[in-house]
Amino acid sequence: MTQSVHKPALSAGQIWNMSFGFLGIQIGFELQNGNVSRIFQTLGADVGSLAILWIAAPMTGLIVQPIIGHLSDKTWNPRFGRRRPYFLVGALLASLALFVMPNAPVLWVAAGMLWVMDASLNITMEPFRAFVGDNLPDRQRTMGYAMQSFFIGTGAVLAGALPWVMTNWLGLSNVAPAGEIPETVRWAFYIGGAALLAAVCWTVFSTKEYSPEELARFEAARGQGAAVRSVRIQRSAAQFLTGGMVWIMAGAVIAALVTAARGEVRPAFLGTIEVAQELYVLAALVAGFGVIQLIAGSLRRQERETSGFMEVVSDLFAMPRTMRQLAVVQFFSWFAMFALWIYGTPGVTEYHFGAADAASAAYQDGADWWSLMGSVRNGLAAAAALGFVMVAAKIDRTRLHAINLTLGAAGFAAMLLIRDPALLWLPQIGIGIAWASIVALPYAILAGCVPPEKMGIYMGVFNIFIVVPQLLAATLLGFLVTNLFGGEPIYAMAIAAVSFVLAAAATLLVSDGEAAGASALQAGEA
Questions:
Q1: What is the pLDDT of residue 266?
Q2: Is 77 helix (H, G, I), strand (E, B) or coil?
Q3: pTM tops 0.85
């Protein structure tokens, strides 16, 4: 690209092109988020098993994103670049999965295709986050991630509206015989698969990337590379081994309690609480984190430091301070959003339409209406994302994000207060603004606090704090809804509201010093 000492600003058209692929990615994600519970229920899954079936999505993200981030950091080809090869491969696989998913004949095939679809979407999405950090100077990163957020909202609008439009405008059937996927859902997935591939190809063939040498030269001129890298703290082998044993023991205790609660003789302190087998997944996650630390400790003791595994684990435990603070915000934010995606369809169809039978016309009407409300929510998110560019110049990003999350909490609470389905667009205002903020502002803050040569891997590690709350939601939400709210799925929205409030409070503790540093640098350049 350029030989300038300082990373130059890009034009609005260039930022548009480099972000356009997110339109297709979000079409894929929204079709997944808005219709997979519907497909599962159509193929015979009950509401209580939805959360565990959804565990495929965050599990694939947890595994795939750090790996892809590490690999893309190490990739460079003068013709194909650094991140773009992963965009294209992931888009091809995701498009194929979107064509196969609505034709799943039985539940286990649909669950398996969710793994494939989510892994493919993650292969494409993860490098897109690093792409903005690579190509834009500090002063344009909020604009870059806001543009991604705009395309996320726009793609979600298109995907969310597809089943409703095909039912009400094109006359396709949204009801099918028991065990079969409605025609509207199948065609929505076909159209979405084609759109995903086309949008990603636009970005792949209309953009260029800086070489590793150019990025190093930009960072040297910026004068912050050494400062960022100097915060790195090496965790000793003993610390890894000790921490690993503690986490494994904690996982064993959780598993033992679940086994006891599900046995013939229950501990008295559990009373009448229902303990589902999904909590074994929580035990496995806790113990699995311990196993990872044991492996890292063993490799460090043997001084085998050059593997990708050790690099990912070391970077996880050496995150910059701002990234650690943002991790807490992401945890509570994404726990709330996963509650929406899992329980939005069954909650609305039961609470607002009075239909719990997935084979009934009332259920399918409610599912279509909720899908349309997703389009409303994401349309508002797209508009809000453009507003962030202007508002962020007048208020710091942390306060803006906290305000947005508070509006989202109010939106979740309103879903329980409003009984008329025709008024469900009102709560989507707050939730849409919060969603636009979640997929833009934390990344804009993060990109300024990590070294450029590790942009991909840190974006992948950051995804852990999106995935872990989703995994916990998949294992705990069913337990909470069953025991606290009598199994009524709409009350997952109350849990989401509380989670957003906690995320807003945590945001106020984030130190966005990089933004101040970028402003000073910009003033100096001027």
A1: 59
A2: strand
A3: no
